[in-house]
Each structure stands twice: as C-alpha cells, then as structure tokens.
Structure prediction request, 233 residues.
Amino acid sequence: MPNIDAATDHAAAPGRGSRLRSALLDALAVVAPTSCAGCGAADRSLCEACAGRLSPSVRTIDLDDLTVAAALDYDGVARSAIAAFKDGGRTDTAPHLAVAFSASIEAALQQSVVPHRSSLHLVTVPSSRSAHRARGYSPVGLLLGHLGLRAEPMLGARRQAADQVGLSPDSRRENRSEWLEARHAVAGERMLLVDDILTTGATLLEARRALESAGAIVVGAAVLARTPRRNAA
Prediction:
C-alpha cells in the first residue's frame, strides 16, 4: 500500500507556495465564482479564517477499548465544511480537510503498536449504493487519495441498513448490529479503521466486530471529526 509516513509528512506542510496559490485563487474567482464552505463568504472555497479553524487538534476517545483519534470537533465551521464536502458536492474543500485527516491517522498510528506500518491495512466502512450514487464519490476515499493513501475493500454489507442520520443511539446500534462481514481472508492482518464522523461509534464497533470475527487485528481507528457530545479520553 502507499507509504503512510510519506503521506502524513507531506500533508503537514500546507503553507508551501501560499502566495502563488492565493494569486491563482484570485484569478479563478473571476472566471468561476464560488463561496466559502465554512461561512459563505465569496471568492474562496474556504476563506483564510475558516481554513484556520480547520487546523487539527487531535483528541483520542476510548470507544469500548477501541482507541479512536479525531482531528476536529464536528461543530461550527468544521460542521459546515464537512457537510458541504460530504453532501453538497464541495470536493474543492478536500485538500483542507485532508490535512486534518492526516493528523488523525498519524495520531492513531502512534497510539497503536504496529511493528511495520507498510503491513498495516487502512479499512473504511462501505457506503450504501444509494449514497455513493447520490454523491458520485466516497468522501473518505477522496480524502485518502489526497494523501496518497487508499482504503482496502475488506468489508461488505450482509444486509441492507438504514441511514444513521436522525436515529437514536440505541437505534443506531440496532441498525448496525451484524451488518458487516469480512470480504477476504484477513486472519492475522493488522487493520486501522478510517471514517469521516464519529457520533455514537456504532459503525466503527460493528466494523471492528466483523474484522475480528474473521481473525483480523484491529489496532485502532482514525476519524476526521467527532460530534461534540463524545468526550475525549
């Protein structure tokens, strides 16, 4: 798989060529007007103020003995930008969000015990077919692509599950229970789960269950953002 160390190091230096980038954005705003995905200001996909509010501040959460690293709180500017990216087609925000995601992945790796990172598999939860058709892309896959990484298709759905949005915590757990299964032989393989938003954690715990049932070793998880209701460990 692509080198995780190189990808996270590259994402840690977003300021290179900032003046040239600003000039190019000014020129682009003339021919293709846009607005900030964070606050709605004109001429930038993400204005400087909102971009600054997306600087990662990684926290770790203990989720039933699964250590989850989260780069952002899903609130304010981060909530607006991520929602626009996931459900508003604003893929132009991906480079900014990828920087935060990189910090989360790096923190998760530091929390885990992995002898050789090159032997680690990044695993994401599969989107429903309807969600993928509506978006035309995988949000997590697109962020990983900006980092030179990719998630491997280790999981598949055993049954149809409802959208989690609007469900209570108990309903989320029931909706995700026994939902996934390993698609390939994974016994003895080390896995790091990656996802976009941590709410109750039902999805990540189901992914871990499915992989560990097939003999995999889940070393941790990394998410772009966590909902404010989750307390940091």
